[in-house]
Amino acid sequence: MTNSPLVAVPTAALSLENATAEDRVLWAAECFGDRLVMTTSFGIQSAVMLHLVTRTTPDIPVVFIDTGYLFPETYHFADRLTDRLKLNLKVYNPAMTAARQEALYGREWEQGIQGIERYNFINKIEPMERAVRELGATAWLTGLRRAQASTRRDLKVVHRQNKITKVHPIIDWDNRRVYHYLKEHDLPYHPFWEQGYVSVGDWHSSSKLLEGMTEEETRFGGLKRECGLHENSGRADYQI
User: Fold this and answer.
1) I need a labelling partner for 44 at 20 to 30 A (CA). Which of 35, 81, 176, 197 fits?
2) Is 31 among the residues known to form the active site?
């Protein structure tokens, strides 16, 4: 393992830009060792990253933030992939139950940007921060891609976000490349792919891609693409 991974990050941000996805994963594993984690939402194309990463780092902790608002199909998809790929799955739930949240705050996702941000903090940001602390993580592999949204267009392969290093092995992949990888390795899309979804999260904030829509408009009615997990200012001023 590199003695000073923080020193390696600026150099890697440049040298990894033209590397393969597999080499980016290997670099992260060598650099951060057992302090490296990955996340998954078990979304439409999640099988790509799960397969790509666990081929070389099979024991990596795979953090799954279960908001309690996922589609039933997502839970079944998660079980199938966990079993097939033998994932070292670490499930984290919000500290506040869905029932309590709705009793205290109502349906936050219907309350504009402020409600959505509070919802995201309680259900996604706080559980992820807890996962990072408990797992002792200093680096995080994600499946973000530049083609997914305008908010991701300028992301680098590796960068620092707050106190953690994030590595995006497939950042430069387009949908065609994702498709070919899935087919080559006989991996499934989320079952909602066949119903017209290109992105799947909570049942109340995910919609099909209709004519004239962009991919980012299929989440939270187009009001907000990022939930805060992938923003430097992701920590909101909320307490639970």
Assistant:
1) 35
2) no
